[in-house]
Amino acid sequence: MTFETLLRAYVLGEARLIPGLKNAAIDALIEKIADEWTIFTTHISTVYDGTPEGSPLRKSATEMMLQTCEVVQIKGRILNDLPREYLYDLLLAYSKRDTPGTISKHNWQNIDRCQFHEHTAPTPPTRALAKM
Ligand SMILES: [Zn+2]
Fold this sequence. Notes:
Blueprint: H1 3-15, H2 19-36, H3 44-50, H4 56-68, H5 71-81, H6 84-95, H7 105-109, H8 128-131
Helix pairs in contact: 1-2, 4-6
């Protein structure tokens, strides 16, 4: 699947409130980035047009950029066609980083995906059945 298809799948999951679809799209995106070792800067507008502030997809797009790209590489293409909100998110995430520099393809592939997932809180076991 293309980056565009995966991003649109996520946006559909966002619009229809389907966390499972969003999580699957994130997993596939992380895999695709690792496989091709490239990122989807040309589709950042799809991300920002289709998701609300604080969306895990926005977070993953920010981390993807910061962790797999040298800042020097970003500089040349960043100012022209990326949404301002994305640049702001990048700046904010960059200022909060513990470890500067990029990670290897292998480490990206094994990144904790749950930081970009939407998990519903576990439901407490029902007591009604226990009393029967
Ligand atoms: Zn998870």
